[in-house]
Amino acid sequence: MRRAAVVVAAGAMAVSLAACGSAKESGDKAESSGSAAKGDDIKVGLLLPENKTARYEKFDRPLIEKKIKELTNNKAEIQYNNARQDANLQAQQVDTMITNKVDVLILDAVDAKAIKNSVQKAVDSGIKVVAYDRLAEGPISAYTSFDNVEVGRTQGKALLDALGDKAKDSQIVMMNGSVTDPNAAQFKKGAHEVLDGKVKVGKEFDTKEWSPDNANANMEAAISALGKSRIAGVYSANDGMAGGIITALKAAGIKVPVTGQDAELAGVQRIVSGDQHMSVYKPYAPEADAAAAMAVALAKGESLDSVAKDKVSSGSAKDVPSVLVPVTSLTQDNINDTVIKDGVYTAAEICTGKYKAACDKLGVK
Length: 365
Description:
This protein is an alpha/beta fold. It is built from 13 helices and twelve strands. Helix 1 packs parallel to helix 10, helix 3 (87-99) runs parallel beside helix 4 (116-124) and helix 7 (212-226) packs across helix 8 (239-251). It is globular, with a radius of gyration of 21 Å. The protein starts with a helix and ends with a helix.
């Protein structure tokens, strides 16, 4: 596990260094369809999808803004808005960015398909679009996220490991994410690649809006349909839903392994206490740095070659320059080597009150 964490850190450093190079290499060729060369005084729009998941306001926004400032000698203007899980509101926010004449837009779509027309409008207005975390439809110029199929595989493997020899005679509940999020389909695909044929899926849900409340209701329905003694584990696509799921399980007197994703503080604390089996740690800094570097380069009319080493295609865009960041399975065994080592949380933040004794036992420090 320690080696995996080091790989992530190395990846973060590589992206960071490449980012600095891209933004500062004045000799880079402008993209064939690109804008005229500009200095550091660029205008960047940043649109994030929701604020129920802790990561967006706590990590993504400040990290992206910090890196943009670094790459532009603190001269860039950043305009920010959060769609609060409302696709229509996000479309209006794109219109506002167009009216405000931003040079480039970093967009994490609420609904990747519904946003397609807005992306087209932005591009028609001369604004390049960087798809952040979710692969938005439309003529995007760049994309950064994690290897989302591998996220699902990581979750599936962890659940099978927790079930051990009981897996083949057991059944699980699968709680996938929202159908409006293309990442959810990729997580689901990766999980099924690992779980299918190894364990029976008794009930499976696509959870509207990634809502913990909806996940809680779905879990209650699964318990009612399958019976308390016939659920061996739960695949939860993220930590927020895992919280709702675990609440339902506890109310029914059920203790089984539950997966997660995002390494939210509450999720890490549930891992410490043993209520949640694992989460997927996705280091936000390299993803944010890549988005910032690509946005700055596009706004300046520079090439993305030194930043984006991958290519990804969507239903409406082919071979999009991309940065895909590796992930790590977070369990009780590697909390020190992941979220604490990387400065995401301190031990004091994790080991509050009722978690202190469990932290001491695990050596979280």
